[in-house]
Specification:
11 helices, three-stranded antiparallel sheet, Rossmann fold
Length: 334
């Protein structure tokens, strides 16, 4: 409920002042007799009419209050927004090979840092279809492109490196899978965000063939190289003699193929990023969010539903009732 003319409520102060003046004047003008004793007078029942003698004045006062409310014009606003949205179709290809467990990025490792940043990125979109492809030695579509972000986020949260998937890093196969989700898209902008921390060492599709396929369907690739290069430690989880899972580490050499990832981006008019810290990864996605921002045109329509007539009818009704009572059963006179 809103008020079109709230200034009308200033008249309430005048009404209150007028009512007080009338009541005070009424008491002063009332005639009275003097008696030596009131004992007998108190036994007289004044009757219902005497109790209701001020009712017309009360009804007229309420009528004026309701008239002021009607003058303030109570109304409800029904607002509708029409949006013309230029949508973007996005597929996120996420490396889930064991090397993504290397603990050189917060909050835990490369995989958790990637998942948290992807989550934040999805939460900033509102009109773009987004899909999720995961890969190691092979790839599969975990979530096809959708606007149902809660389902997408729930699936992203459950991604681990312990999926039933072949070991290795099949960059070509993963890129081809991601592009396949976009080949029938009618969106003006089609994007693959490709995250990996390794080199292509598996799969039946050569990465350069996958790049050509992406170019054929006008898909831009934003490639991201995860983690630091060089000697590091890879977490390994083993069970001891008591069937308890324990974490140990083994030496591991991590290397991102920057040349390949750069070529993926350059040939498709995308961009290559190197993210060796969590902060750098966050900056990468913020950059992508700005580069691929949707264009929105909004037109707002507001329909106002008036309610003043209800209060006005009550005001007229109460005033007529007061007039009729004051000139009939509650009439004052000789």
């Amino acid at each position: 409920m809103m008020w079109h003319s709230p200034w009308a409520f200033t008249f309430l102060a005048l009404i209150v002042a007028a009512v007080l003046y009338v009541f005070l004047r009424y008491n002063k003008l009332t005639s009275y007799f003097q008696f030596s004793s009131l004992e007998q007078i108190k036994k007289i029942n004044p009757g219902l009419r005497a109790h209701l003698v001020k009712l017309p004045l009360i009804l007229k006062s309420l009528a004026l209050v309701f008239a002021v409310i009607a003058l303030a014009r109570p109304q409800e606003a029904d607002t509708q927004i029409k949006r013309n949205v230029e949508g973007i179709d996005i597929v996120v290809a996420l490396d889930i090979s064991d090397s993504m467990l290397i603990e050189d990025m917060k909050p835990q490792n490369r995989l958790q840092a990637s998942k948290q940043t992807i989550k934040n990125f999805i939460q900033k979109r509102f009109s773009d279809r987004i899909g999720l492809v995961v890969f190691a030695g092979e790839s599969y579509t975990r979530v096809p492109m959708t606007l149902d972000y809660p389902i997408l986020l729930n699936n992203l949260a459950s991604v681990t490196t312990t999926q039933n998937i072949k070991m290795g890093t099949a960059i070509g196969v993963a890129l081809a899978t991601a592009v396949a989700r976009l080949k029938d898209s009618q969106a003006k902008s089609k994007v693959v965000i490709f995250l990996t921390d390794g080199e292509n060492n598996s799969g039946t599709i050569d990465p350069h063939t996958a790049i050509d396929i992406a170019k054929t369907y006008d898909v831009k690739i934003y490639s991201i190289g995860m983690g630091k290069d060089g000697e590091t430690r890879l977490p390994v989880y083993v069970k001891d003699s008591f069937n308890r899972v324990r974490k140990t580490y083994k030496p591991f050499f991590s290397k991102v193929n920057e040349e390949l990832l750069g070529q993926m981006a350059q040939e498709t008019e995308g961009k290559f990023y190197r993210a060796n810290t969590t902060n750098a990864l966050v900056s990468v996605f913020e950059d992508i969010n700005e580069l691929e921002k949707s264009k929105i045109e909004s037109t707002e329509f507001t329909n106002y539903i008036e309610h003043f007539h209800v209060w006005l009818l009550w005001a007229v009704g109460l005033y007529l009732m007061a007039f009729l009572l004051g000139h009939s059963v509650l009439r004052k006179g000789p």
